[in-house]
Amino acid sequence: QKEVEQNSGPLSVPEGAIASLNCTYSDRGSQSFFWYRQYSGKSPELIMFIYSNGDKEDGRFTAQLNKASQYVSLLIRDSQPSDSATYLCAVRSGNTPLVFGKGTRLSVIA
Amino acid sequence: DAGVTQSPTHLIKTRGQQVTLRCSPKSGHDTVSWYQQALGQGPQFIFQYYEEEERQRGNFPDRFSGHQFPNYSSELNVNALWLGDSALYLCASSLALDSPLHFGNGTRLTVT
Q: A43, B40: Cβ pair inside 8 Å?
């Protein structure tokens, strides 16, 4: 059973701070890693994906992958109240279906 | 460029009834996946369609069935609805079987 684990939160950070969201996965064969943002009552929106160990930056977002530790994280710099949402980590190996975690609820306090 | 579109937005059904949800993929995408998301949970994979065939299926009963049409649009059918089928049903499309998924706005199904 492939599992993706996330702390459900809520994670509260002050406006302008760095928010750090973490995710672990059980399948060592996982190859693709995705972060989705989901506002309350809305559908998931793709923020970033990463395939290789290390960091990948896109604007205020940085995804970090450590396959040896089976760990992937998302950093949000200069957090804004509009970043308040649930962040879903999703993992896939090859063509297998995307497996999602339950998500971490982030609250950015103005 | 239209993204993934789903209809209807909301639906209320009675236990035992049948429902059909519809999805049009993003332009250029030929692979459609369906997910069920219960409140407070992550999306759970139902099945995936490519070239009008079900390619992969999650741990859902046969009451859940689907179809993909030649224009790549897709339907999800659920028979004999249970109360537990109440959820947000998400359709996602992708360029290929291993590409990132792009989700539609979802259909909120309530079974009473």
A: no
